[in-house]
Amino acid sequence: MAVTRERVLAYYAQGEEDRRLRGGRGRLEFWRTQDVLRRVLPAPPARVLDVGGGTGVHAEWLTADGYEVELLDPVPLHVELASRLPGVTAREGDARELPVRDGCADAVLLLGPLYHLGERADRVRALAEARRAVRPGGVVAAATINRYAAVHDTVLQGLYANEPERRAALASLETGVMLSPTHGFAAYFHDPGEVPGEFADAGFPEVARYGLEGAFWLYGDLGDWLDDAERRALLLDAQRALESVPSLLGVSGHLLTVARRPA
Q1: CATH number of the domain that 17 lies in?
Q2: How far apart are CA 113 and CA 52, in angstroms?
Q3: Helices (H) and strands (E) in the chain — how many of each?
Q4: Consecutive 10-residue runs of the chain (263 residues): their mean pLDDT?
Q5: Where is the Methyltransferase type domain (predicted)?
Q6: Total structural domains in the chain?
Q7: Residue 38: how many CA atoms within 13 Å on its side-chain side?
Q8: In terms of Cα–Cα distance, which of 139, 119, 125 is closest to 96?
């Protein structure tokens, strides 16, 4: 079985991704993504192309920070919801064939597309399109899900005791393809070591990698840390100190890889 457009659209039509990032422990991924991007993006009012930006979870705060944001997404429901956000321009688009001119953006974000493209050639094509769309010296940042995330997550949620979920999680270790029989989630999970090669084949010879959640996402619901502003700041600071330790990159649920288009 494969990661197909039909599976991806069916999952996101449920609206789960928006709820996941705005509540519970998913907020750790959201705030860490925000933390890294605020350090690597050019200063506002730079123009940001948010490819696969969903309902605008990140476009919303980027616009509030003063960026000019255009969101592209293949899911009509996402485009409709994102277009309601103040200052956000949203339209349908495919990461593999961006409907934009060359060098039109100061930064391109791929915070979802790479793990929903099951074929390596499609992922490299999406990165190459991002390279085309960003100006020389501009930033491209892409999120991937780590190969080991399904085993960690199913144990944490108690789903590993369910045989179909356990088989799917273990299969993802071998193939990279995760097809959840419970949630309908379909994605490609990268080995952290393969991500730089995909960037290199798309024309980015140098990258920086950031583990977003570290091991902290496995600490239960994290409510005591995430609900309190002072403790949340400490938690984010703790992972910032560990974010690029090579031996810990694969422990995170998500990896953010950042590159600049060569001048």
Answers
A1: 3.40.50.150
A2: 6
A3: 11, 9
A4: 62 65 86 98 98 96 98 94 96 97 98 95 98 98 97 94 95 93 87 98 98 95 92 97 98 98 93
A5: 49-141
A6: 1
A7: 14
A8: 125
